[in-house]
Amino acid sequence: MTVVESPTRGDGTSHIHLSRREFERRLAAGGHEAEEIDRLWAQLASVGSERAESTRTLGLGPDIAIYLGLLLVVAASVSVLGVYWNGLGAPGVLALGAALLVGYLVASEIMRRRGLTQPADVLETVAIGWLGVVTYAVERLAGLWPEGASHIGHVHWGLTTIAVAGLTGARFLQAFRPAPLLFVPMALATGVLAVDLAELVFGNDLSDRQRVIFVLPVGLVWLAIGFWLDVTRRRGWATWAHWVGLAAASGATVVLVPKTVPGFALIGMLGATALFFSAFVRHWSFTVIGAIGVLMATVSAIGMLQGIAPFVIAAVGLALIVVGLRWSRWQETIRAAVLTRMPVAARAFVERLGP
After folding, report:
1. CA–CA separation, 118 vs 124, rounded Å?
2. Which end is more exposed in the chain, N or C (fewer Cβ atoms within 10 Å of the end residue's Cβ)?
3. Which of 50, 71, 86 is the last residue of a domain?
4. Cα-flanking dihedrals φ and ψ of residue 224, to 5°?
5. What stretches in the chain show pLDDT beneath 50?
6. Domain count, the chain
């Protein structure tokens, strides 16, 4: 017997044991193409592996307590360094930073062995920040960090070295402990390196707006990486790639766009586009960033719209309420309507972006 359905478990789920050959035969009989059958089989296999890996779940309440505790521990360690920064000097900063770096990595390993993967990933990500502190202290001791430097141009090479150290450390950790959260320090490091590239090309006297021009492509590249991870069915990794990409791209766009009514209108339209696009990628990061963009554009234009501002704000607010109430129903309709009008190759790509 090829197909066996196990009894329903206490959580309402059941298992169907089906060989791949039988799976292919039945779907082919239903008119499905070979490529689509392979994709569906890969999806079902990944879902099964994810359920097998997530054998230890704490629940929302305990998760919040753990992350709040982690946040307090990180804040306390950072505050210790801030309070005693001047008194420690470069040797003290190096010793304390190295101790915290090792301590965070050891605590991460203990949590990972207890099955607490997500808190372990958070501690490893914070450890990359302490690696940056250690690198800074080494630069101070070696005389590579100029004393009393304040302008970003004066610490150009020092920041470059810290960014390279952070990027290398995050990549090293990913090789042994694959964790998508490590995309956060990696994205920050690539953003710093992009600013360094701008200074190498145009000199150190660039304005903040000119530096940000080089950050925008970095955000777009991270978004492209997220789409590639979506297509290859690694949505856990894609989620964080999208978050860092959206943060970099949207932040750079806000800085670059002129602070006028047309400029704020452009921010609002980009936010609405992100909301619309979330129907296809099905990542709530696009929904959040899109809503923030619309809200920012509306609030920022209040003073410029003068007498009609209350009416515009009310209209946008009502529109957001309607969208929020109807989005769960509309997004599938929008998705289906757009997909039917796409070329075959484009439709196949978009269908692979979201589950």
Report:
1. 10
2. N
3. 50
4. -65, -40
5. 1-14, 48-59, 151, 153-154
6. 2
